[in-house]
Amino acid sequence: GMLRYGIPNYRFPRERLQEDLDAILSTGIEVKLNTPVGTEAFNELTNTYDAIFIAIGAHTEKRLNLEGEDSGNVISAVQMLREIGDEKYPDFTGKRVVVVGGGNVAMDCARTAIRSNAKTVSIVYRRRKEDMTALPAEVEGAIAEGIELLTLKAPLRIEADESGNAKALWVQPQIIGRVRGDRPAPRKAAKEEERLECDVILMAVGQDIVSEPFEKAGIPTRRKQLQADAYGKLNRVGVYAGGDCVTGPATVIKAIAAGKTAAANIDEFLGYNHEISVDVDIPEPLLNDKIPCGRVNLAEKESWARKDNFEGIEYTMSDEEALQEASRCLRCDRHGCGVLRGGRQDKW
Length: 348
Known about the structure:
There is one protein chain. The chain is α/β, with parallel strands linked by helices. It has helices spanning 2-5, 14-25, 39-48, 77-85, 104-115, 136-144, 212-216, 244-247, 252-269, 303-306, 319-327, 332-335, and strands at 52-54, 60-61, 74-76, 96-100, 120-124, 148-150, 153-160, 166-180, 183-188, 194-197, 200-203, 207-208, 221-222, 225-226, 239-241. Among the domains are: 32-58 and 209-269, FAD/NAD(P)-binding domain; 60-207, FAD/NAD(P)-binding domain. The chain contains twelve helices and 15 strands. The strands form five sheets. A five-stranded parallel β-sheet has the order 3-11-4-5-6. Strands 7, 8, 9 and 10 form a four-stranded antiparallel β-sheet that branches. A two-stranded parallel sheet has the order 1-15. It is globular and about 65 Å long. The protein starts with a helix and ends in a 13-residue tail after the last helix. The mean pLDDT is 92.
């Protein structure tokens, strides 16, 4: 999924991911590759298997439908990151790259472009830096690697050369306005349009879900998101869903939580009610008060040493740091919600 085809190696090393995948598959799971699932195939699966879990993620791109968006060298962020997942890295040597968007995917694209030998990389965003949905650490990391933020600029159209390849992005300057929802909304500023010359444009304005095959099979959706309940159940008996295809693009930890929830409920639905035993001795929690302690943040390689390769950018914790971080554990397994499931002391 997105762990391989959406997160670059420098953020999450492939070898660590492969270790997890190998461990999971070693339990005897059968994998059927290159198997498209349309409406007919989905209906056949529901008639063949006792339970189904849909975890298709959000693997297609959203479009702004700008004039010239179909020009050459206008590349979808999702498409580029997917190819990188297959070890097909772009070559932007000497190219001026513009990234449109302000989320984590936009930062991934920009930082990937700089590692692909781009001459310059600029991020175009219609709001302010502080309004970006990307994690602050990702934004600061991009800036440290020499990526320029061009904020309060709304894309208007793409200009192409005689060969049909993009050569400039036209933008309309914005002015920040009143707060709508939880952040200020931009509006058109009384300024002239601006022309940003470039050789490559990476569109990172959001991800979408391929929900049509399931909609045709009677699965309810809202804005393409499958409408599963809190237990992961859909409206067909034995069919569950979770992750980005239910919530929309979110975090890895939320997707993992959805998978664990659905797995437990599928197990109960099938009548097994398995219990996962704990085969290690877990020490009893100390009852003394916890002294407040700051979190250990992983150190990163210097920007000059990391921006020309796709190796992991974070250093691991030292023994001292790991011990201190472990000491901050509040033992929620015994004092929090974990108590409701046997405290995770005897079973999961």
